[in-house]
Amino acid sequence: MVTLHDVARAAEVSISTVSRALSAPDKVAEATRRRVTAVVQELGYTPNRAASLLRSGRTGSVGLVVPDLENPYFASLAKGVQSRAQEAGMSVLIADSDENPRHEPELLSQLVQQTDGVLLAAPRDLAADFGVMDGTPAILINAEHPDLASVSVDYEEAMVRAVAHLRALGHTRIAYVGGPTRSRSDGQRRAGLKLAGDQYDGLEILDLGAFSPKVEGGEAAADLALGSGATATIAYNDLVAVGLLRILARRGVDVPAQMSVMGCDDTLASQLATPALTTMYVDIRGAGEAAVNMFLELSGRTPGKGRVSDLAEHRTLPVQLVVRDSTAAPRRA
Amino acid sequence: MVTLHDVARAAEVSISTVSRALSAPDKVAEATRRRVTAVVQELGYTPNRAASLLRSGRTGSVGLVVPDLENPYFASLAKGVQSRAQEAGMSVLIADSDENPRHEPELLSQLVQQTDGVLLAAPRDLAADFGVMDGTPAILINAEHPDLASVSVDYEEAMVRAVAHLRALGHTRIAYVGGPTRSRSDGQRRAGLKLAGDQYDGLEILDLGAFSPKVEGGEAAADLALGSGATATIAYNDLVAVGLLRILARRGVDVPAQMSVMGCDDTLASQLATPALTTMYVDIRGAGEAAVNMFLELSGRTPGKGRVSDLAEHRTLPVQLVVRDSTAAPRRA
DNA sequence: ATGAAAGCGCTAACAA
DNA sequence: TTGTTAGCGCTTTCAT
Fold this sequence. Notes:
Two copies of one chain form a homodimer. The first copy, chain A, has 13 helices and twelve strands.
């Protein structure tokens, strides 16, 4: 292993000069700097992370807590976090709470000790989490708290646009299959739906109730949707939409001719479904990246353009309509 | 920050005793051990990883390299790795090569520095990877190398059973949509297919060629399958099967009545598809866990029952048939 | 602009 | 069984 000492010896300077040449190039004479970097190249020196971290008191990693890594939504999020962190020279410790809110605090407290900060995706029990965070920088994803920075998808806008799309196709009775009641993002979606409903004349939004945010949820809601007289149904997310699709197919209902179906999130699921789902694209990977960026600013590692307000910045991510094969004009009666 | 010194002082022992009490409890008197652990609890001491790394050369983490975290297959793998590692008190650093074999060596060399060992999932360019591994323990997943331990899914058996299922339904002409030519696991699948083909009289296996292991691949192969006169098609994996389903639906072909379709891997995709895919379940999570276990044995952290042959143990994981809605008896002509 | 030197918190000889 | 001690490779004052 090549160390600072080796480089220093070869370049005939002291180790502190080498250290400076690498981390604060402007504090070293041009000639010296060049000589040092040349030797570094030649010897193939790479700094020992452990040593520099020990010295500086940092760990060089961020923690990420997700409910379920197998859920395509969180897989994408993890991917975004991962890639941005890597760029910034940090590593990511991922903890999977297995959809169990009770695991969160425990996982969190583990992470807190091993990382410089934590990204919390869709936390279920913020209050409990708080206890163990103990001052560690934390960023919330799809959740908000007055004292914490956060990045969330604009689900309200997502619903407004979804309705606009269906309305443009000529639908006037639209059903909504909701997600978990306690979910903050379901609340946002409903707000968007209400907004859209008020905006158009003669448009009816039917609330089908709360369902599990999975395929099963959609399956449970399908007959309700059918019986509601709606010509289009918006699902809480893509998974739920897939469940709808499945039962509708079994009932012999042609999608989109007899019923239009929309998902949300544009996860892999929307592309896998048959017919492919019209859905709202939300940049999950971008959310992951944004969360890392916020963390970086918060902990002052980014030169920082003006530095964030204080601790608690809230960032909202835009959404976009993706039209595929599951929506069409309603059939003339 | 609580350090060893703090604990030592409070417990009235030396720092080395504390260190030992934690990492080699049997080398410390029972009473002392209890006193120390009590103080550790009380003070909330957690070892400084950077320091112990620096000193011991170990990191307490494993690296995992996957081609794509968004692919449900690798997401599950990551989940398995994650959970077993957690149990063993280790953390996981995940690197995503973004399906680009050229990223691998770079990611790997980063990981090698930060981990005690590396798990390589479906590596594309083992030769290049080798250069940077430089003696770090490595476990291959779905790949093999004479000098490295590995765990792979038994894709040969998977195909044998898939064919048996279709055969039992009455199919006699079965098409196979292959994956990447260079893929080792595609070779295994073909071997299984051949085996099965030879085993039954009057059974024809048609090779449709090599396709991208994604939805697009299946879409590309669909018309070929249709034109081949086969009554059933086996796809390289679930994603490819979904692609088939999509085009078949567009062509008005009823699955499974007119064409049976099988996927492979039993990823989320097979459940999301319409109709739900009959597929071969392979315990991907188990593979991840097994890989961690092997690493643990290899690096001698598990008391080890007899210690692995040498460096290179190869473990094979079983498969299982999952029947859903995409297969049925062929229609009488 | 450069060098000397003091540790960061911990592990692992080596002593006792 | 326990304690003493010497660093691991680096950053960072403080001199020069």
